[in-house]
Amino acid sequence: MTELPQITQKKLGLVIDLDTCVGCHACVISCKGWNTENYGAPLSDQDAYGAAPSGTFLNRVHSYEVQPDTGPAQLVHFPKSCLHCEDAPCVTVCPTGASYKRKEDGIVLVNETDCIGCGLCAWACPYGARELDQAAGVMKKCTLCVDRIYNDNLPEEDRIPACVRTCPSGARHFGDLGDPDSDVSQLVTARGGVDLMPEQGTKPVNKYLPPRPKDQMPEIDVLAPFLAPIDQEPKGFLGWLDRTLDRL
Amino acid sequence: MHPAPSVIFFSVFSGLGFGLLFWLGLGWPSPTGVVAFVFFAIAYLLAVGGLIASTFHLGRPERALKAFTQWKTSWLSREAICAVAALLLMAIYGAGAVFLDENWRVIGVLGGVLSLGTVFTTSMIYTQLKTIPRWHSPLTPLNFLSLSIAGGALLAGQVTWALWLIVIAGGVQLATWIIGDRRFTASGTTLATATQLGQIGSVRAFEPPHTGTNYLLREFVYVIGRKHAFKLRVIALLLMTILPVILLLIPFSHVAGGLAVLAHVAGVLTARWLFFAQAEHVVGLYYGKR
């Protein structure tokens, strides 16, 4: 049934650090690589080598320019995937029961053999986390690498989502956000982690850490103000040229 | 939102078909024999034809039967169940009228109410979506229901009822447009709340994730034809309300009645196209689009 569980034993999810993300898209590639070869239908591409390539991705990295009131603009790279919401609107709209949220760890999944590809769950998601695969005709979404995190055949360091494993700047963290003492929960508390679109009432499990305030460069040399200013007036030939051109 | 022809035809024609079944079930008119057969054939062609059209936009139509299972939470599932229940009851009622010259009133009224219920559940599929502020309003079910009842009255030949109901449906349509235009801003969702970067300064989408397009942009960010929206609204209102009212006010003839039906259907199709084409999904914000 597509009823949401009242409580989940764990709230597994991601914490994404917008301060350290460098926008390299490695998480996008590793996600596509892992998820096209493992759980469920492959993530297909259409016209991959043609004029208008397009494909299914479970994770996409946007880039935003933020202009503060004073100072230069900032560029913020913004990875976005399923937020595994506690109040997931994509689950309750599903007519077949293909979409569900797991009681044990809160992961939102699609049972692809039940999916009719009506697309309504993608309509209900405010984050654009679900994409209908054009080749398989079924809905694809982030599985939080459910086939890695519990996989005893993998070395222990690989039992985390592919995007977290691959991130070269340490901008992605995985853990139980339902446990206030977990590393990820402490990180969220320390850095003031936020929900995306809180007004939509989805209660996302994934949190975003906002960029830290930029440093203000102070005057370093305390004697500099006392030094004689450098002569602004050019002398010699350049001085003559400057005066002559002014007179013209 | 991408205005998929299958969904537009489904919602318009099934709305008309179930509207006609509503009037037939209530007993206005209560035909028997061959006349009843013609009435029920038209209603079923519209309602069932619309339902079949709706399966064309599914990625996996062969699994459509599974959509009957999740009635506890899903309006799409409720719609499927309500539609089949209405069609079954009205088939019993229709069989009585065509073959036995009997009008079983209780079954008819129950089937009529379920027919309207089907239109209501269809509208709730759109109304429930918080992500599309224009649809997330009580005006959406009012819009669908008023059009269905008015169109049904027109097809059922209830001229006096049709006249008033078409005017009411036109008024509701106008209100849906005017109030709907303000819904996205009123929802409070902006690029600043979507990225939570508003505390630093003003946010602008700098670079999209991919140079090409994707499913999300094709499905949710449809901007073609929006510049003609005002003209299309005028055309829709002329066709669905003003022209049919004039045709119904002149002395009744079957030609005028037929023209009124055609004009009304063309108008509702235009309005339903606008319903999708003008609807903006909040995910567009992430792409700096609406």
Automatic annotation (TrEMBL), chain A:
Gene3D superfamilies linked to this entry: 3.30.70.20
Any one Gene Ontology molecular-function term assigned to this protein's record: metal ion binding
Segments crossing the lipid bilayer: none
Keywords assigned by UniProt, alphabetized: 4Fe-4S, Iron, Iron-sulfur, Metal-binding
InterPro entries found in the cross-reference section: 4Fe4S_Fe-S-bd (IPR017896), 4Fe4S_Fe_S_CS (IPR017900), ET_IronSulfur_Cluster-Binding (IPR050954)
One matching Pfam family: Fer4_11
Alphabetized PROSITE patterns for the sequence: 4FE4S_FER_1, 4FE4S_FER_2
Boundaries of every 4Fe-4S ferredoxin-type domain copy: 12-42, 73-104, 106-135
Entry superkingdom: Bacteria
Protein name: Fe-S-cluster-containing dehydrogenase component
Organism: Sulfitobacter marinus
Automatic annotation (TrEMBL), chain B:
Entries under Pfam families matching the protein: DmsC
Keyword annotations of the record: Membrane, Transmembrane, Transmembrane helix
GO biological process: anaerobic electron transport chain
Listed InterPro entries: DmsC (IPR007059)
A Gene Ontology cellular-component term: dimethyl sulfoxide reductase complex
One of the record's GO molecular function terms: dimethyl sulfoxide reductase activity
Alphabetical list of PANTHER family matching this protein: ANAEROBIC DIMETHYL SULFOXIDE REDUCTASE CHAIN YNFH
Name assigned to this protein: DMSO reductase anchor subunit
Annotated source species: Sulfitobacter marinus
